[in-house]
Recover the amino acids of this structure.
């Protein structure tokens, strides 16, 4: 483990993830509040954040539990919401190969939307694997820790941030900050446009399948364009 | 089955499922080579997946209510944030401008 640890990069990862917390804290609080509202005990609400560690899945689980859905329906719905982790895992895989299994197991645990969005570009731009892995670990552990604190805060103090402030909107804003530089590339722009349109058109799909389907359609469009271009060159 | 029993079973099952999903390809491709077609597809993951998350969060003002017009404050804020992020690659600045425009547009559109 230590062979691949870079302390400066670890703290750099923490520093760079800090602005994202403005969106993560209210989201984590909402997850805590939502679980209590569904009739879950505070301990179980905290365990959801610590073990499931996925706001989207936690919200779905709370909503379905409150509606009295059967166990298997709740699990299946959460599974669908978590399908995107397969895609993130595949995208990170080429970069994490040279690490030992303990590093890979640990980084996998903190692989979330935000951790993926915040670190993938660094892995692409730099070959310094110990620094990149430590950067990822720093940002990922910060997100996990703050997620627990935010859930606890939601359980203890309830809705103190007025919903009209819409602080959750910071989450898509952080993704926009990552997306904008990518879209200078024309193929990436096309991939994004296709995925965006697909996400709107498919929004009616059950169990929030639209997100993963739109993502896969966008990726496929990129592969098709790459192939066609490759044949012309 | 009580709600408390149900939620603990959900926590254990979904916790395991999420971890296996997160680890899946990272563990698999540590031992074998990535098929070339998949390798090429993976480079499109950030643009596709992040857009698939962002767009619905911006254009739907309520579940199923699509608003692609200047009356949607989130859409105005997202366009402003995109412009700022393209100009200066700075997450904090993007958040500050995005939220400021969101609040201003909400106030103006009231």
């Amino acid at each position: 483990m230590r062979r691949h640890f870079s302390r400066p990069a670890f703290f750099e990862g923490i520093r760079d993830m800090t602005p994202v917390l403005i969106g993560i804290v209210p989201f984590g609080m909402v997850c805590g509040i939502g679980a209590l509202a569904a009739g879950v005990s505070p301990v179980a609400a905290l365990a959801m954040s610590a073990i499931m560690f996925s706001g989207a899945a936690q919200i779905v689980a709370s909503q379905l539990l409150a509606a009295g859905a059967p166990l298997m329906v709740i699990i299946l719905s959460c599974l669908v919401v978590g399908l995107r982790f397969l895609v993130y895992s595949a995208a990170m895989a080429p970069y994490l190969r040279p690490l030992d299994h303990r590093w890979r197991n640990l980084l996998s645990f903190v692989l979330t939307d935000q951790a993926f969005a915040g670190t993938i570009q660094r892995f692409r731009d730099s070959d310094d694997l110990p620094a990149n892995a430590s950067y990822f670990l720093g940002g990922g552990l910060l997100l996990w820790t703050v997620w627990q604190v935010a859930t606890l805060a939601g359980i203890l103090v309830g809705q103190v941030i007025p919903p009209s402030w819409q602080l959750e909107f910071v989450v898509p804003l952080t993704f926009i900050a990552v997306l904008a530089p990518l879209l200078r590339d024309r193929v990436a722009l096309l991939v994004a446009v296709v995925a965006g349109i697909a996400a709107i058109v498919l929004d009616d799909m059950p169990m929030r399948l639209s997100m993963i389907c739109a993502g896969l359609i966008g990726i496929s469009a990129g592969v098709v364009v790459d192939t066609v271009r490759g044949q012309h060159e | 089955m009580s709600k408390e029993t149900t939620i603990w079973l959900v926590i254990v099952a979904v916790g395991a499922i999420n971890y296996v999903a997160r680890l899946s390809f990272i563990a698999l491709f540590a031992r074998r080579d990535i098929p070339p077609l998949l390798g090429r597809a993976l480079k499109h993951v950030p643009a596709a997946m992040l857009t698939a998350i962002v767009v619905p969060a911006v254009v739907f003002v309520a579940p199923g209510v699509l608003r692609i017009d200047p009356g949607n404050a989130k859409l105005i804020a997202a366009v402003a944030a995109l412009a700022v992020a393209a100009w200066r690659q700075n997450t904090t600045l993007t958040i500050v401008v995005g939220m400021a425009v969101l609040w201003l547009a909400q106030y103006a559109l009231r």
Observations:
- Residues 44-110 of chain B form one domain.
- The radius of gyration of chain B is 20 Å.
